[in-house]
Amino acid sequence: MKENRVMIPCQGIRLEGLLNLQEALSIKPGVIFCHPHPQYGGDMDNAVIIAAVEAASQEGLSTLRFNFRGVGASEGSYAEGIGEQEDVKVIIDYFHSRLNDSNARLILVGYSFGAWAGMPVAVGDDRIRALVAIAPPLELYNFEFLKGCKKDKRVIAGSRDDFCPVPLLEKFYQTLEEPKSLAIIPGANHFFSFHLQNLTQPLREFFRNK
Questions:
Q1: To which CATH superfamily is domain 4-144 assigned?
Q2: Cβ neighbours of residue 38 under 8 Å, at least 6 residues apart?
Q3: How far apart are CA 166 and CA 83, in angstroms?
Q4: How many Cβ atoms are within 10 Å of 194's Cβ, its own excluded?
Q5: What's the whole-model pTM score?
Q6: How is the chain split into domains, by residue range?
Q7: How far is residue 203's CA from residue 17's CA, in Å, rounded to a whole number?
Q8: Are 49 and 65 in contact (CB under 8 A)?
């Protein structure tokens, strides 16, 4: 997997990203990855994000991971999730244009904070055809915006995630519209410590069918 560093203009600042364009651009969708909380060390080099990018690449999908404003070489500063949603809008525009197809399909993958920041934008953007929420922190943030969303959704979480406890997740999952799928990884915590390899299968299965 070869990724090229890109700097993407966004509201007077620039966002740092790593872009991998596959040859069959018009056949398979592209995938955008939103990393965990910037104020707690989250960035696009997070191990979960890297594992997800590799899973998409293995299925022949183009990928774009990026740093939210104020992270890594991305300019600006943390903006309480509001500015980060603006980042996602710009990233979608940029990636869609790079796929060179007006009908290009996109998938958004958000891990933890990245799911909360990225998915409200993805729900309302017709270019995003499917969503993957990895360890959505239901104990910390409101994810009501996913209710009523008819796009294909995969939710992945660990059975020992304190920020996304299984009983709360299962109750929330029941409120979501089809199509949807849920994968619980036994023994994994919010950070998927020692369980990164278990993310590959549920992600590749989802990507393969898109």
A1: Alpha/Beta hydrolase fold, catalytic domain (3.40.50.1820)
A2: 68, 70, 71, 78, 84, 113
A3: 30
A4: 10
A5: 0.97
A6: 4-144
A7: 21
A8: yes
The pLDDT tens digits of the residues spanning 112-166 come to 999 999 999 999 999 999 999 999 999 999 999 999 999 999 999 999 999 999 9
Burial bucket for residue 26 (CB in 10 Å: 0-12, 13-18, 19+) = exposed
Instruction: For residue range 182-209, list pLDDT tens digits in order.
Output: 999 999 999 999 999 999 999 999 999 8
| Gap between the Cα atoms of 28 and 104, Å rounded | 8
Q: How far apart (Å, rounded) are the C-alpha atoms in residues 106 and 122?
A: 9
Closest Cα partner for 86 from 10, 6, 176? 10
Q: In the structure encoding, which two tokens stand for residue 159, read together?
A: 């059975």
Mean pLDDT, residues 45-59 taken together: 97
Distance CA 103, CA 83 (A): 27
